[in-house]
Design goal:
Blueprint (H helix, E strand, L loop, with lengths): L1 H27 L3 E7 L7 E2 L1 H9 L6 H13 L6 E2 L2 H4 L8 H23 L8 E6 L8 H9 L6 E6 L5 H13 L6 E6 L13 H9 L5 E6 L10 E10 L4 H5 L1 E5 L5 E5 L2 H22 L2 H15 L3 H13 L21 E4 L4 H10 L4 H14 L6 H11 L8 E8 L3 E9 L24 H6 L14 H4 L2
Parallel strand pairs: 4-5, 4-6, 11-12
Antiparallel strand pairs: 1-7, 1-8, 2-3, 6-7, 8-13, 9-10, 12-13
Helix pairs in contact: 3-8, 11-12, 13-14, 14-15
Catalytic activity: a very-long-chain acyl-CoA + malonyl-CoA + H(+) = a very-long-chain 3-oxoacyl-CoA + CO2 + CoA
InterPro entries: 3-ktacl-CoA_syn (IPR012392), ACP_syn_III_C (IPR013747), FAE1_typ3_polyketide_synth (IPR013601), Thiolase-like (IPR016039)
Enzyme class: transferase
Amino acid sequence: MDVFFLFILPFLLYSFFSLFKLILQRRSQACYMLAYECFMPPEDTKLNTVSATKIVLRNTKLRLEELRFLLKTIVGSGIGENTYCSRTILEGREECPSLKDTYEEIDEIMFDTLDNLFKKTAISPSEIDILVVNVSLFSPAPSLTARVINRYKMRENVKAFNLTGMGCSASVIAIDVVQQLFKTYKNSVGIVVSTQDIGAHWYCGTDKKMMFSNCLFRSGGCTVMLTNKGSLKGRSILKLKHVERTQYSADDDAYNCCIHMEDEQGYLGHRVTKSLVKKSATQAFTVNLQATALKILPVWEMIRFFFVSVWCSGMKKREMVAILVGLILGKKKTNDNVLGGGLNLKTGIEHFCVHPGVRAIIDGIGKGFRLTEYDLEPSRMTLHRWGNTSSSGIWYVLGYMEAKKRLKKGDSILVISLGAGFKCNSCVWEVTRDLYDTNVWKDCIESYPPENLSNPFKDKYDWINEDYLSFVRLDLSRIFI
C-alpha cells in the first residue's frame, strides 16, 4: 500500500498544483469596474427649443416638406430640451468646422472625465497599463490615445488602442478589448474613453435619411476604469460576467442601413434607413441574445421555454432531444424557434441597460422581451435628458439606475448596444456592492421621471402641418422665432 501511495503521490501533487494554478489564472483574468465618469457639458451648450429652431433655420435650403419631417422626427424622438450640443454648431460654424474645433470638442470630453476619474479613484495616470479610446468619425494623427498619453505623461509601455467607425456600440467593444488583454497581462489597470464629435459632422443638406441623425445625436462621453488586480477587487463596483459580439456587415442591407456618406449635392452626413429598426437591428439583436441567453439564464428557464416552444411548434422527438442537449451543453447554434422573445430574461437579469439611441428601438426591445416600463425607464429618461450620446449612452443609463438606488449587491445588469456595421454587442455585469452615487444626474434626478414627456416643439410649431401652408409661400425664418 505504501508503495502504491508513493507511486501516485507525484500525480496527486501535479493535479493539485495544476488546479491551484488554474484557479489563480482565472482570478487574474477577471475584469472589474472600479469607477466610471460621464461627461457633464457646460450650461452654455444646452440645446433648448429656441436654439434648436435657430440652428434648423440656418439651413436656407430646407423647404416646407423637410421642415415638417424635422418637426415630426423631433417630436417623436423621445428627446427633451435639456440636451447639449457642440459649440461649433451653436455658434454657426457647422458648414465649415476647423480641426481646432474638433480637437476642442473631443478634448473637453476626454480630459474632463479623465481628470474626475483619476481624482475619484486616487489612481494616478502612471499606474495605467491599458488605454482604449473610441470615437465614431474622427481619426487624427497622432492618435487620440497618443493625445491622452501626452497630456498625462503616461508610461512608455502603456498598451494603447484606437477604435473608430464602430458607432454607438463601440464602448462595449472597447470593454471586450480590455477584457481580452487582461487574459495576458496580469495585475493591470485599464481605461476606456468613449467620446464623439458631432460638431464636425453636422449634415447641412436636405436628404431626409441624413437629416435624421441631426435630430438625435447630442454631446456626451464617458470614461471607465477597469482592473484585474486582486488587491483592487474590494474597491470595485461591477464585475464583468460575459461579453457577446454580433457582426452583420456581410449583409448588404445591414451594412448600408447606417452609413457615413455624401449626398447627391456633396454634403457629408450620416444616412439612416428604415431597415435599421425594421430589419438590421432586429436580426443582430436576436442572434446576439440567442448566444447570450445560453450563458446568463438558469437551465430550468431554458428547459421551460424549450418545452413550451416544442409544444406550440409540433417539433419531432429527434429534433427535441438534439436541441435540448445543445441548450444544456451551452452550444450557440440553436433553432430560432427555441430562443426568442418568449424567454423570461428576468430569471437571470435584474436590470436592463438598453442603448438610448432612438425611442423605436427601446420600444421594440421592451415589447419583444416583455419588459415593463420600470425596466425601460432608465433608457427612456436618458434619451429624454441627454439625447443619443453615441457609445457613451449606456453609461448614462447606468448612472440613472445608480442615482435611483436600484443597484444592489449581487444584481445582474444586461447592457445592450447597437452600432453601425450593422452590429449588436452586449455584456452582463454583476453588482459587487450597493451603489447609490447620483453622479452626472445629481442636478435633475429628483425630477425624473417627469409626469409628461411631451416635446415642446409640438405645442409651439404644430401649426406647420396645416394644409393651407402647402399653397402659400412663406418666409419661415421670420415666423418661426
